[in-house]
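Side project, low priority. Logging it here so it doesn't get lost.
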Amino acid sequence: MAIISSYPVILPQLADQVLGSNNVDSYGDPVPNNPTVQYTIKSVKTLIDQHYSQKLFSSNLSAVTPGNNDIGSILVFPNTITSSTSVTIDAAGKVTFADTGSYTIQQIYYAQATSGTNIQLNFKTIQDGVTQIGSTTTTSFLSNSSTSKHRIDITSFVDITVSGTFYHFWIQNPEDGGLGSLQPQTIAAAWGTDAPSAQLIITKLV
């Protein structure tokens, strides 16, 4: 084989091919012996051009008050729902991933308390009804008959490897603190839409 530097330099076309080593398969598993293969420029471009596409948007325009206890409750997002074949949500807040892949999950909440001096709200994500995904997120704040709202923004990146995997998103109001809740915000109709108490946005890398 000639020295690579001796070959002419030209502008590549999408149908052209390059050599490479196949190290992993489409599931991310190692490929034995790393065989040498050809890749089209078009396929390389497609891989590089991956982007996140929204697969689910859901929100809640009602107050959410989990109560003071150490059990917590599952969050639901029943008012505005836009879903896809990749990700769906039911009336009980169960989010099911029909397609495997890499996802970003964004949870946005607006916390409020009108009484109490030690307000704490905790959030967690449970997979398949058993396993907690990631760490618990918490917010603590003081309240004195205030209607001010505290924004909680939780963003996580997950790899779904099994079709049919499902998530529930939980909220807890510990019994040793004041009573906190999630509250919507009314916006003047001439300016925009009301701000929901809770939003769930899921995008997929495609």
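Brief comment: The longest strand covers residues 101-112.
Revisit when time allows.
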